[in-house]
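Quarterly update from the structural biology core.
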Amino acid sequence: MKKLRYGIISASSIVPRFVSALNETKHSLVHAIGSSTLKRSEKLAKKLDIPNAYGSYEEVYTDPEVDVVYIANINDQHFEQIMKALSHKKHVLCEKPMVLTREHAQQAFAFAKEQGVFLMEAQKAAFLPTTNFVKEAIESKKYGELKQIQISASYANRFPDDHWMYQKHQGGALFGSGSYIIETLLVLLDNPSYEYQAMTHLGQSGEIDDVSIQFNFNKDLLVSTHLSTRVHTENVANFYFEQASISINDFWKSRKLRVDYHDNEDHDVMKFPNIPEMVYEINHVYDCIHEGLTESPIMSPEITMNTASLVEEIYKTTV
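Predicted structure, tokenized:
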């Protein structure tokens, strides 16, 4: 199979990291970038050695050499660009959150299937070796039964006050990073049933800048989560098993984890390849397209839709 050629939508700050990951693969490459202005596209294309720069998104969709479109513009524009890319029968990988409502997620996945092309929400945490290690430990019961999880994530003071990330309908802690925690949990636990309680704090623009969500998965596993753009937290995921605990710092991008054993003071540190963390999801996209799939069996439509439902519900009951 020939190399997959990516067309990138937006010149946003995440694009250099994605291109760096693409360049690490042997099966995919970046072919073009489109932005709202040709000047922005050309500037980033020169910096990242992208061969084609366009002054519109539409030119990316109509480029016959583009196989896959990577959408990385602002959150409330994702759905429109997904549907346009799909209408040109391009495969689509869209940054999280893929959409802001369950209804839009349902429409997008249904249209992708109708068009016979692949669609997935970009969720790098779901494909990391650290995540796979924890999932295998859960399934094999290597350390006994999983009894409790605690996860926190934060990014305070990262953006200027007028940035769209502080807009209440698409930014803040919940829309900005909720999918990292929620989708990682759903992938690890095979999209389980759950009950939850959420507590929130609103920022100056009315956005949810601090949220604590307590889950009871399958009426058996208690999970405590905390997301914040208001304050820096430890940014760690802790998984407590009967015989050991697993800790992962910066779990959404980590290349190592620590296992501490309960019956003694011993511990193990597991280290994984020092490559861009997005490589693993790009590898998965290639495998799915190569197999002729229209959806991922790991970052499934159900996980994206269930996450969108939960975030939408918390938002509507808070703001």
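The CA atoms of residues 62 and 88 lie 7 Å apart.
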